[in-house]
From TrEMBL:
Phosphoprotein is among the record's keywords: no
Name of the molecule in the record: Peptide/nickel transport system substrate-binding protein
Source organism of this protein record: Streptomyces capillispiralis
GO annotations of cellular component type: ATP-binding cassette (ABC) transporter complex; cell envelope; periplasmic space
Keywords, sorted A to Z: Signal, Transport
Gene3D superfamilies given in the database record: Dipeptide-binding Protein, Domain 1, Dipeptide-binding Protein, Domain 3, Periplasmic binding protein-like II
Solute-binding protein family domain boundaries: 84-450
Length: 535
């Protein structure tokens, strides 16, 4: 029978893998053929869809971030098993004042870019200032919004002066937007187009591109890497597949060694219950969330009562049961369960699905029914079950008699820009957190220059509650502010949370390190993989 490895949750909701895949105790040899990893992520570079998908100053989705996390080094990094970030390019970092507004890092000695150029504090300053100045429309520079100025002292000291206290700043320095780039390769005032990456991370990158699309990425162990990570292999190849079915067939035929996102619910069930002992399914808790986003200035959903009625009608348990089964859990807040500060704000306000209550909301607001809407979804970014999910959502709304909805899908390359430009009234999105803290589920949606480019703006959230929550180094102490934010979102419904998913990978049984391949933020940690003894 297929072995199924469970990676269990630790206290405070962070992952702590406790069951290793077969052979993990031996560790990878770092030798032999490349380990081949499959994905359904698609990476395109074009004028219309974004010419610089892997520039740290632009990239802001889980797929491109996973490319950068292997190749571009950051001052801090999330450690194996999660927890507080630890120094990587830095040898030490910390706040140097009582108010958490001055943060200093000292670089490791001997850091180098590919080609041998020494990395200095000036390069760190250049990289951070560049991302802030370019201010790409992806919204990723928002992670650096609390920086006022960056100062250097000598070649190894970098000091960040913040506009306000930000206890989450060490986490932000572990994200790819804070990646250290070579000034000779990355212009100060424009993005670097294409798929070339030059960084001091654990791997260097070789790419195979066809028709402006990255079809194969080869990660070669960087002999000059100096940091906190132990690299257990010499080479990893990542191959993009058209769909989950093709990726699964490649795993069965041993054409790839590991299968990552996104597998279909059917594949996960079959792998978990199958009899092929040569393939192992690894399951772990996840912080991935799915939600509906609203263009709150669009005529169809501008009235808050329409959005509230949808919140009153959606049956999350039924939706998950019919589409995802045990692979997801209902979500009643932007902040998922397992994160300090989570509250069930939407359940507290709306309770169980109730068509009568939804009708009352619309009638009191004078909204004519049925409300006609198109629910938009992406066909190729969040997995093959997305269409079925939206069919169920549409059915639930229509069965109430209060809505008349249809659904419309589009590939991510056109879907994402259309959402940012406000072309969709209602559309589905997913979120893989920048870091495992409640701020990583709130600020990207609700702060100024948010990544959705949403017109919704709440002054109390932006000016008072987010800054107040960031002043608390003890995240439990931030719970009151975080709860108030979630209550406001539940009342205004600029976003409608749907579900929180588990994480899965599948691997041939001679691959080691699979229990650590994904952290709670869905970061691929390819350096953990190795080859061991089959069985």
């Amino acid at each position: 029978m297929n072995r199924k490895t469970l990676v269990l949750a630790a206290a405070m909701g962070l992952l702590a893998p406790v069951l290793a895949a077969c052979g993990d105790s031996e560790g990878g040899s770092g030798d032999g053929d490349a380990i081949v990893v499959g994905t359904t992520d698609r990476f395109t570079a074009s004028k219309e869809e974004g010419p610089a998908p892997v520039d740290p100053a632009y990239a802001y989705d889980v797929g491109t971030w996973n490319i950068l996390r292997q190749t571009v080094q950051t001052l801090m990094v999330q450690p194996r098993g999660d927890g507080e970030p630890v120094p990587d390019a830095a040898e030490s970092c910390g706040f140097t004042d009582a108010g958490n507004e001055r943060y200093s890092c000292r670089l490791r000695d001997g850091l180098k870019f590919p080609g041998g150029d020494a990395i200095t504090a000036a390069d760190v300053k250049y990289s951070i200032d560049r991302a802030r100045a370019i201010k790409a429309d992806s919204g990723v520079s928002g992670l650096l919004s609390t920086i006022d100025t960056v100062e250097t002292q000598g070649d190894r000291e970098v000091i960040f002066h913040l506009t306000s206290a930000d206890a989450t700043f060490p986490y932000k320095l572990s994200t790819p937007v804070a990646g250290i780039v070579n000034p000779d390769k990355y212009a100060k005032d424009k993005l670097r187009e294409g798929f070339e990456v030059d960084g001091s991370g654990p791997y260097t990158l070789e790419t195979e591109v066809e028709n402006n699309e990255l079809v194969r990425a080869t990660y070669v162990k960087n002999p000059d890497y100096k940091g906190a990570l132990e690299v257990n292999n010499s080479k990893v190849e990542m191959v993009s597949f058209e769909d989950a079915e093709a990726m699964g067939e490649a795993l069965e035929k041993a054409e790839i060694d590991v299968m990552t996102r996104s597998m279909s619910p059917e594949q996960i069930r079959e792998l978990g219950n199958g009899t092929d002992g040569e393939i192992e399914l690894v399951e772990s808790p996840g912080l991935e969330i799915r939600y509906l986003a609203f263009n709150t200035e669009a005529e169809s959903v501008k009235d808050k009562a329409v959005r509230q009625a949808m919140a009153q009608l959606v049956n999350r348990s039924e939706l998950i049961g019919k589409v995802y089964g045990s692979q997801a859990e209902p979500l009643y807040s932007l902040v998922p369960a397992g994160i300090t500060g989570h509250s069930n704000a939407f359940f507290n306000k709306y309770g169980d699905p109730n068509a009568s209550k939804a009708r009352d909301l619309l009638e009191k607001a004078g909204v004519s029914t049925p409300v006609k809407l198109t629910l938009h979804y992406t066909t190729d970014h969040y997995g093959p079950a997305t269409k079925a999910e939206f069919e169920q959502l549409s059915k639930q709304l229509n069965d109430s008699g209060l809505f008349e909805t249809d659904i419309e899908g589009a590939p991510w390359s056109t879907y994402r820009p259309a959402g940012q430009k406000g072309k969709y009234d209602v559309y589905g999105m997913g979120w893989f957190p920048d870091f495992p803290d409640a701020d990583g589920f709130i600020a990207p949606f609700l702060a100024e220059d948010n990544f959705l480019n949403t017109p919704y703006a709440n002054a109390e959230i932006r000016n008072d509650l987010i800054p107040e929550s960031r002043r608390q180094a003890d995240r439990l102490s931030a719970s009151d502010s975080l709860t108030e934010i979630q209550d406001i979102v539940a009342a205004d419904v600029p976003l409608l949370p749907l579900w929180q998913g588990k994480q899965y990978i599948a691997a041939r049984d001679d691959i080691t390190g699979t229990a650590y391949m994904l952290n709670s933020s869905s970061t691929l940690q390819l350096w953990e993989l190795g080859r061991g003894v089959s069985g």
